Amino acid sequence: MCGIVGVVSSAPVNQLIYDALLLLQHRGQDAAGIVTQQERKFFMHKAKGMVRDVFRTRNMRALPGSAGLGQVRYPTAGNAYSEEEAQPFYVNAPFGIVLVHNGNLTNAHALKAELFSTDHRHINTESDSEVLLNVFAHELERSTRGVPLQPEDVFTAVRNVHRRVRGSYAVIALIAGHGVLAFRDPYGIRPLSLGRGKDGTVMVASESVALEGTGHAFERHVAPGEAVFIDLEGRLHARQCAQEPRLNPCIFEYIYLARPDSVLDGISVYQARLNLGETLAKRVVSTVPPSEIDVIIPIPESSRPSATQLAHLLGVPYREGFVKNRYVGRTFIMPGQSVRKKSVRQKLNVIASEFKDRNVLLVDDSIVRGTTSREIVQMARDAGARKVYLASAAPPVRFPNVYGIDMPTAGELVAYGRTVEEVRQIIGCDALIYQDVEGMKRAVMKAAPGAAGAVPISGFDASCFDGVYVTGDINPDDIARINEARIGQEDPLDEDTSRLALPNAQDA
Ligand SMILES: O=P(O)(O)OC[C@H]1O[C@H](OP(=O)(O)OP(=O)(O)O)[C@H](O)[C@@H]1O
Ligand SMILES: NC(=O)CC[C@H](N)C(=O)O
Ligand SMILES: [Mg+2]
């Protein structure tokens, strides 16, 4: 996941895009970039780092114009350490196009070869997003019937992109002198929503929080397979460009990735997390009697709504036992295992009095590599807890994700090929309670109020939990290739890339 935003306005957009990126910072911490357009000329600034660090006043002043786009990057392909792979990407023909992408292509490797041999286009990085931009540029070249470009020609190009590209992609592109284009893959795996300001400004962004937080009223979600073209006068043209679109949003958005105050595809992320706490309560009761739990403590940040609901239903006090250092970013989306491990301790500190001589139930939204859980359980014990139970609002993460979450290898997942009891031993808690897959899906679906006009959800991409890939075309070779494409991301100085092992055992 990355965060993307695009804007067409009648006023300068540099500050607006910056503000929207700050609201999407939780979706990507590795790099940030903005492009604006004034009189057909693009102005770009992108670099590694968080939004506040990347854009200084002088950079902001050099971004004039009333249309533009931006991205915060969480790398899932290519190299996290290369400035070159920060987005937006640019090509000069046709017209001049810049593009930002959230998602991950599963056929980037084949497309890259095809772009070279058939389309005669050069790709200069390992990023799948550069591949996507070049496919789009090639298709736009082919579909353009004259100048100025007509929205129908743009839609033909998107139709052809859908034919060639596989995987997940929520995309925003700016076509010089023409407008901003936004489209989503035919399964709608990654989110994209659209809003409007009182002054007529049109904004497209990954999450509704970016619209609302910058004073734009949420209008609607971009439908799976749909393309929306906003011309430079702010007129909106929309077309369904996929043959068989269906909505299968990534369920991990609701569990961890998105902000709780966002609504994605009609589902309130906050309500989904409350519901997950409710279904989790039933699982907890069947494993540990509530009378044996003195206190329920969330592992900040993302698990809080589930933990409050769980505590409420169990009738057990909810307490804050960990304080989060707000200046340390999200640990799961950091590249490299040693930096993740170190950050857990830097990020969370205990309030010892909440643990001393108590049986505590810790609640997290998910256990992926197990880095957080193992550290946290130990911290609870060091603080004097008698018994430490752990509940996860998500089921065990057992399969690689190929759609834009950085867990491409099964081997790094603590629950891969292991029983719950084995995971419990590794994490070192006294009981481990996981959500079940069906319960999770029901809980998230229940948070959709079914608003009129909303595209009905056919199901979720829950591949990291159930191994079912919604695009239906993923085989072990693809997974291996996607993994290879991402290996270069690990910091070469990172010595600790192994997965957590069973105590006193040479793990298979
Ligand atoms: O098993 P692991 O590999 O450690 O990953 C899972 C943990 O990572 C995430 O927290 P993160 O610190 O990224 O963000 P948060 O503050 O939003 O919870 C998630 O909420 C879990 O706590
Ligand atoms: N997380 C994402 O959406 C990543 C986008 C793109 N695949 C990259 O690695 O830069
Ligand atoms: Mg967390």
UniProtKB/TrEMBL annotation:
EC code: 2.4.2.14
Keyword Magnesium: yes
Cofactor requirements of the protein: Mg(2+)
Binding-site residues, Mg(2+): S302, D364, D365
Cross-referenced SUPFAM superfamilies: N-terminal nucleophile aminohydrolases (Ntn hydrolases), PRTase-like
Single GO term (MF): magnesium ion binding
Disordered as annotated region, ranges: 486-508
Pathway(s) annotated for this protein in UniProt: Purine metabolism; IMP biosynthesis via de novo pathway; N(1)-(5-phospho-D-ribosyl)glycinamide from 5-phospho-alpha-D-ribose 1-diphosphate: step 1/2
Active site: C2
Record keyword Cell membrane present: no
Catalysed reaction, written as an equation: 5-phospho-beta-D-ribosylamine + L-glutamate + diphosphate = 5-phospho-alpha-D-ribose 1-diphosphate + L-glutamine + H2O
Pfam families listed in its UniProt record: GATase_6, Pribosyltran
Gene3D superfamilies per UniProt: 3.40.50.2020, Glutamine Phosphoribosylpyrophosphate, subunit 1, domain 1 (3.60.20.10)
Biological process per Gene Ontology, one example term: purine nucleobase biosynthetic process
Co-factor binding details: Binds 1 Mg(2+) ion per subunit.
Domain Glutamine amidotransferase type-2: 2-233
UniProt entry keywords in alphabetical sequence: Glutamine amidotransferase, Glycosyltransferase, Magnesium, Metal-binding, Purine biosynthesis, Transferase
Known role: Catalyzes the formation of phosphoribosylamine from phosphoribosylpyrophosphate (PRPP) and glutamine.
Homology family: In the C-terminal section; belongs to the purine/pyrimidine phosphoribosyltransferase family.
Annotated protein name in UniProt: Amidophosphoribosyltransferase
